[in-house]
Design goal:
With 338 residues, the protein is an alpha/beta fold. The chain has helices spanning 37-51, 67-78, 94-104, 123-133, 154-162, 174-183, 195-198, 240-253, 275-283, 305-316, 321-328, and strands at 19-25, 56-63, 84-88, 109-113, 117-119, 137-141, 166-169, 200-205, 208-212, 218-222, 257-260, 266-268.
């Protein structure tokens, strides 16, 4: 039996956020590879809570984690530090857990980050600034590195060349790039081409720049990118193929650019905690800066991305043309090595 009228009937609900951050967490136990799993998760989320602004919302997806981690996440939610906490009894995999949330979110900007990323002050403002200055951007990471300028960047390179915006710059990122390489066990192999530590390919508009290319362990995407992601599940627990089909290729299909900030604003912690990670979080101040993001429609050159990719891969990034273009774009040395 119902008595009276539901007070919520016909009330409109306002969304106070324009930026959603989604963090999948999978720590099945606290042994072996996962022995520091709870501490790493806590550092990641605490660094996020301290650095995001009041028009951003934090969603955590508990992907079959152990009781200790589940209880920790529940405490964060009850204390009001999380906007959403989604529990899954079993691990769905990163992509299958994250993509449905991204597709149904209303916010125009969606950050997807692994649960072992440590965020620095101003990361969210720096990323949003790139979207402000480069409305062509569809994917922006707060972690730049010099090895991915040619990975799913056909739109970026084609459009950037056409607009005369491509230029090499020395951004003094070598130390932090090597730190990232070390965190994924590729300290010796990732930068065999030392020139990539010295010079980075960027797009430049007036006095603002962004690095060409980015990885996807942490990145912010325009919501429209997910319109091009498959609707069916990948059924992959952890795979670069899932990232490729659900994130990389959709950015290209959306005809948008793939960029990174010119400074490093986050660290990949991996699965082993180190003292410097704790020190960063403990000394970090809570973000009180009012966001200044003026969200506008994306801008794109309406040519099929496959045509752009064909031109870039066959005519631009070949052994004969690439060194000549790199010299034109400002690379001072190592034209053939880069």
């Amino acid at each position: 039996m119902r008595i009276g009228t539901n007070p919520n009937k016909d009330q409109k609900i306002k969304n106070n956020y324009y930026h959603r951050i989604i963090v999948p967490v999978c720590v099945p136990h606290l042994e072996g590879y996962f022995k520091d799993g709870l501490k790493i998760t806590a550092l990641c989320l605490e660094s996020l809570i301290k650095t995001i602004h009041n028009q951003s919302a934090l969603t955590v997806i508990n992907n079959g984690s152990c009781t200790e981690v589940t209880n920790y996440l529940q405490k964060l939610y009850i204390s009001g530090k999380l906007d959403q906490l989604i529990h899954h009894k079993e691990n769905l995999g990163k992509i299958d857990a994250v993509i449905p949330v991204a597709k149904t979110s209303e916010e125009p900007l969606i950050t997807i980050t692994d649960g072992d990323v440590l965020f620095k002050k101003n990361w969210i403002h720096a990323v949003e600034d790139v979207f402000n200055y480069f409305p062509e951007a569809g994917m922006v990471s707060p972690v730049p590195h010099g090895t991915v300028y040619g990975n799913y960047t056909a739109n970026t390179l084609f459009d950037g060349a056409l607009k005369n915006m491509l230029t090499f710059q020395q951004l003094n990122l070598a130390q932090e790039m090597l730190l990232f390489a070390k965190s994924i066990g590729k300290e010796k192999s990732m930068y065999k081409k030392q020139i990539r530590l010295q010079y980075q390919l960027t797009v430049k508009r007036k006095n603002q720049s962004a690095v060409v290319g980015c990885g996807h362990f942490v990145s912010t995407l325009r919501k429209e990118v997910f319109d091009f992601s498959p609707n069916k599940k990948s059924r992959l627990a952890y795979s670069s193929d899932a990232d490729r089909y659900y994130i990389d290729i959709p950015v290209e299909k959306a005809k948008l650019w793939r960029l990174a900030t010119v400074k490093n604003y986050a660290y990949h912690m991996g699965n082993c905690i180190e003292n410097w990670m704790v020190e960063i979080v403990e000394t970090e101040q809570t973000n009180t800066v009012t966001p200044t993001y003026n969200f506008g429609k994306s801008k794109k050159i309406q040519l099929p991305y496959k045509l752009k990719a064909l031109i870039i891969n066959k005519l631009v990034l070949n052994k004969i043309v690439k060194p000549k273009l790199f010299k034109i774009w400002g690379l001072k040395q190592g034209y053939y090595e880069y």
